[in-house]
Amino acid sequence: MGLFSRRRKGEEAAPAQTEAQTDGVSAEGDDAPAGPTGRGPWDAADVPELGQRLDLGALRVPARPGLKLRMEMDKRTRQVVATSLSVSGSALQLQAFAAPRSGGLWAELRPEIIASVEKQGGTADEVDGPFGREILARLPVTAQDGRMGHRPARFIGADGPRWFLRGVLSGRAAVDPDAATELEDLFADVVVVRGQEARPPRDVLGLRVPGKASEGTTAEETPTTSFDPLARGPEITETR
Questions:
Q1: Which of 46, 93, 232, 240 is the most exposed place for a label (fewest CB within 10 A)?
Q2: What whole-number distance in Å separates Cα of residue 202 and Cα of residue 99?
């Protein structure tokens, strides 16, 4: 089960993955929305030009040397629902959602994430971070020898105008502040393209594979048969 997910009754998404390689191209306070000044993530209205970013549809992601981009797809709907940015032994998984006009979705979701992690046998603590409140978690995993272990992860979030951007830091960035700096800077430079269509709060904003591949770019879709919370990241759960 995902850590938080917008889910229809009786349905559970089984993700597949698409990988790509790029060649180079805070909100301040507890739950403040991104804006044109200070630190991002940004809204498309504030940063209309693509600049040195990859167009993934609902997200415009900074392109940096050595950055590996993995697109994560719902195998049932064939919709790309998340992306994972990997560099220097760490990864940042990104997923964007529609949010109410009043904002504040991150404050609502943090207790849900903590409860879900603990229910699965992990631990989670809410702390202050560079983007406001965040969650430090130890997620349960099964080793190859069958023994249970834990994997660290940091859940960060940013509320924008009618959208919410969630990030999950894993690898060294989950435990080493110096290793996290590069991915935190990437998160702060993401632009969210919400669109004007009506969407229920917590609805996933769809992504797409970059249309123009750089030299040396590879793309491969790999179906998965088991759910790895660090590979897919948490999803939002909505009760209807």
A1: 240
A2: 6
Structure tokens at 63: 């392109």
Q: pLDDT per residue over 53-84, tens digit each?
A: 999 999 999 998 889 999 998 888 888 899 99
Handedness of CA 192, 43, 25, 210 (dihedral sign): positive
Cis amide leading into 41 (omega within 30): yes
* 33, two tokens: 């929305």
Would the pTM count as exceeding 0.90?
no
Which residues are 71's β-sheet partners? Answer: 18, 83
User: 145-186 pLDDT, tens per residue?
Assistant: 888 889 999 999 999 999 999 999 999 999 999 999 999 999
- Domains of the chain, earliest start first: 15-209 (3.40.1000)
Peptide bond into 15 cis (omega under 30): no
CA 199 vs. chain centroid, Å, equals 19
